[in-house]
Design brief:
elongated, four-stranded mixed β-sheet, eleven-stranded antiparallel β-sheet, Porin, 30% helix, 552 residues, 3 domains, 17 strands
């Protein structure tokens, strides 16, 4: 009952455009849980082989260490389940039928035991009832269930389908009808929601949605997020260094057995939603809405039969399967686990990882054609090729990758119907054919966009090229000048964010120049982020920097 009071008193306020940001789901931070720092050690052996070529320097190393990089995970609260809350909300909203239900005289309640509420429970229930309006007419519920009706008022498309309007059109409609400007800022006005719901005959829908959404999102709102640091990670490897003519060649190969690779935060969020009953409740809410329009659920059933290959499946079979559908690829957290105590999402999977680099450094004197062609006194070129390999990586245990990513993609986009990753040209049909899909969810959906790349690749590669020249007595002055460039390019495969996070197509170019005179140094550099904005998330972060230093 205390949990019910919390959600009723606060409501789910959505986003206040003026003032503080209050999300439909706000998780509380639980800080960093650092490793204990014990059992960390390492050793290295080095040797020089002078009888191979011009000589080869070899190094062998082994280390055990705690992660210095935080791994995100979510923590769900014990015993809080969306279905239980929904039942309580429905009971609280039963109005005049409440007494009959409690004394078992109501229809279909004859076999239930009679319940006599204490004075404290009666008072608490009254508070829950009065607070249902906070959930029913807040910006979260109004935004989800009123936006197509309000958008039609402005754009006149003649339909109240949620998929008939762009996100911009729906946002404009919500601003126009549900927000009030105060001192130049827009604030959500629940009284306007009540008025508009009455005009569009949506009051009953919103009240039902309020109970459903309040129950669905409350377990998420009392969850926590925290950062952990996996302990006793092992890395072993070999390195070499030699000269081939005027070029120095270096290489390194590292093996990390059972190394923790971080899972995607969005996948963990869906795992939490699955465990807390949020996924099931939102899916059942969608089915209830579809049932109101067509109680045969013909379109959804046809898609379910085609996707699963079960041509004799009934409507009831489909609904039962939808109730058990999981939107996350991560291991399912059982209801018993939720009941037994606080529970955690899966922050990482352990994989054997092989990584390596090979590089060259070539220095050119003043007489070398490269240096003389630049008119410089000396020059150098440095190259490096790097890779990360996860030989046993599988799609059933996906890890977080670099680059842009929107939600959990792959086969999960098809929902319980296994309808595939492609959606309909008529967006209004998506919720019917892709039943249970996170992409078509009325509250958390992303407009039917299916992320095509749900996992890192088993091999990802990158390279770097650095060029530098030195001009002594630049332009017949007492200053020295050293221009340089650095070219970076990830050219193959998506790397895990834990190691490298390479993104194919991501590129950058850095140009810099340094002037020196005695103990004085003046530098200027420019970094240009290149590649498609979906590949390079820093594409809009070009920058110029300058520095002045004096040694004394």
């Amino acid at each position: 009952m205390q949990a019910l009071l919390m959600v009723m008193e606060t409501g789910m306020s959505g986003l206040k455009k003026g003032g503080d940001k209050i999300g439909v789901v706000d998780l509380h931070g639980n800080g960093h849980l650092y490793a204990d720092g014990e059992d960390q050690y390492g050793f290295a052996l080095r040797t020089y082989l002078d009888d191979i070529g011009t000589g080869v320097e070899l190094g062998f190393y082994y280390t055990q260490f705690d992660s210095k990089v935080p791994y995100l995970r979510y923590k769900g609260q014990r015993g809080v389940y969306a279905g239980d809350l929904f039942g309580a909300f429905q009971l609280a909203a039963s109005g005049d039928n409440l007494a009959a239900r409690l004394d078992s005289s109501a229809e279909n309640f004859g076999l239930t035991p009679q319940v006599t509420m204490t004075a404290e429970e009666t008072t608490a229930l009254a508070q829950v009832v009065s607070g249902l309006g906070n959930v029913s007419f807040n910006s979260g519920a109004c935004g989800a269930y009123m936006n197509p009706h309000l958008a039609n008022e402005i754009y006149g498309k003649g339909t109240a389908s949620n998929f008939a309007y762009t996100s911009e059109e729906k946002a404009n409609a919500l601003d126009a009808f549900l927000y009030t400007e105060v001192n130049g800022k827009l604030y959500f006005d629940s009284s306007k929601c009540v008025t508009q719901a009455g005009l569009h005959s949506r009051v009953t829908t919103l009240q039902g949605a309020g109970a459903l959404l309040g129950a669905a999102v409350f377990p998420l709102n009392i969850a926590e997020y925290e950062f952990i640091y996996p302990e006793n990670n092992v890395a072993m490897g070999v390195s070499m260094n030699t000269n081939i003519g005027p070029t120095m060649v270096n290489a390194e190969l590292t093996f990390r057995p059972d190394f923790p690779l971080h899972t995607a935060p969005t996948d963990q969020g869906q795992q939490l939603s699955d465990a807390a009953g949020t996924t099931m409740l939102l899916t059942m809410g969608t089915i209830q809405g579809l049932y109101g329009a067509d109680n045969t659920l013909a379109t959804s059933l046809a898609s379910y039969r085609a996707g699963t290959g079960d041509l004799t499946a009934t409507r009831e079979d489909m609904i039962t399967a939808a109730g058990g559908f999981k939107r996350s690829y991560l291991p399912a957290i059982s209801l018993q686990t939720v009941a037994d105590g606080d529970y955690y999402t899966t922050p990482y999977f352990e994989y054997d990882v092989i990584s390596g680099t090979i590089g060259t450094t070539s220095s050119f004197t003043a007489s070398h054609p490269v240096t003389s062609g630049l008119g410089a006194d000396s020059s150098a070129v440095i190259t490096e090729l790097g890779f990360v390999s996860i030989p046993d990586l599988t799609d059933t245990k996906p890890v977080n990758r670099g680059g842009y990513r929107d939600g959990v993609g792959g086969v999960k986009c098809g929902g319980v119907s296994l309808a595939g990753t492609a959606f309909n040209s008529v967006k209004a049909l998506d919720g019917l054919t892709h039943l249970g899909s996170a992409q078509t969810d009325p509250l958390f959906g992303n407009g039917s966009y299916c992320e095509s790349k749900n996992n890192a690749d088993d091999l990802s590669m990158t390279y770097r090229i650095v060029g530098v020249a030195t001009y002594n007595n630049f332009n017949n002055s007492t200053w020295g000048f050293s221009p340089s460039f650095v070219w970076s390019h990830d050219f193959k495969g998506y790397g895990p964010t834990t190691l490298g996070g390479f993104v194919p197509g991501r590129q950058s170019l850095s140009l810099s120049g340094n002037f020196t005179k005695g103990d004085m140094r003046v530098g200027l550099s420019y970094v240009n982020q290149l590649g498609d904005e979906m590949d390079n998330l820093s594409w809009d972060r070009d920058y110029v920097s300058a520095n002045v230093s004096y040694a004394f």
